[in-house]
Amino acid sequence: MSETRIIDMHVHLVGNGAGGTGCRLKQPFWRWPLSAFMVRHIGLETSALKGDLDRLYVEKLLNWVRTSSLDAVVILAQEQVYDERGRPMPEHELAYVPNEYVLALAQQHAEFLPAVSIHPARPDACEELHRCLAGGAVLMKCLPVHQNIDCRDRRYTPFWEQMAEAGLPLLAHTGGEHTLPVVRPDLRDPRILEWPLQCGLTVIAAHCGTKSAPFEPDYFDAFVQMLERYPRLYGDISAFNVPIRGRVIPRCLKAPLRDRMVHGSDYPVPVLGHWAWLNGFIDWKTFRQWEGQPNVLERDYQLKRAMGFPPETFTRINQLLRKVPHMDKLTH
Ligand SMILES: [Zn+2]
After folding, report:
1. N or C: which terminus of the chain carries fewer CB neighbours within 10 A?
2. 189-199 confidence digits (pLDDT tens)
3. What's the 240 CA to ligand 1 centre distance in angstroms?
């Protein structure tokens, strides 16, 4: 695999289970406006939400990748919510995307790199990890505030060690969360990732600990301090093209932070250039040029390039993802 591939390493899959994919999506009435907005933002009709969403979503995503500057995207599975003893908590679940689905899609399409999602409290966590490694997983994604994963829990140590041994990095959501229900708000703090780091893992803190609403705590400074202590820690710049999170961009563009950033969009989260323009990170001409770009993956990439993120931000992830022993793709 080329180390110079341009990769968006934070792309969500969404599905309602149509076509037997195993995905689930709960749509309470109060979420409908947000879901409808997101679906239209990525170029689908709102009717897709009640129809063959899984296939339409994948086809659209593939098309966006193939017509963008990107070579590949890391597609993320979405684990269920569990309590500390490994019992499912379905009352908190809003979206579920199984590991097998993500692994199978990556087998079919060279543009897709599979990130699995495993709650370490699951009774079969280590077996599932083993299965996912055999299936070609390159990353493990978790969302501690939502999925109720306290990464400091010493019962998870064997799980972290197994990941470290396999060279599988951890992508963990840090900072504010407003798309999914928050079960443990204290787990927004990136310092919960110190234990997996001490277990030898490479860790990417999604969103660099930034807040996403005005009146919530911000953990960006805590993340920056951790970068000094942990050379295996990185941060992703996903969802930096929405209000509030993006205010840390000028600091992320300077060394030493600049050399620890990786590019992700958080697709299908909206990409709005207004914020960057109003803050002076891009000029009016650049804003106008990309705001009309219907391919949101490309829009996010171009806006970030224009802000001054260097080319390495978009290729660095090649060095961090697990090197998968040769696996023949079914196509390409
Ligand atoms: Zn995300």
Report:
1. C
2. 999 999 999 99
3. 11
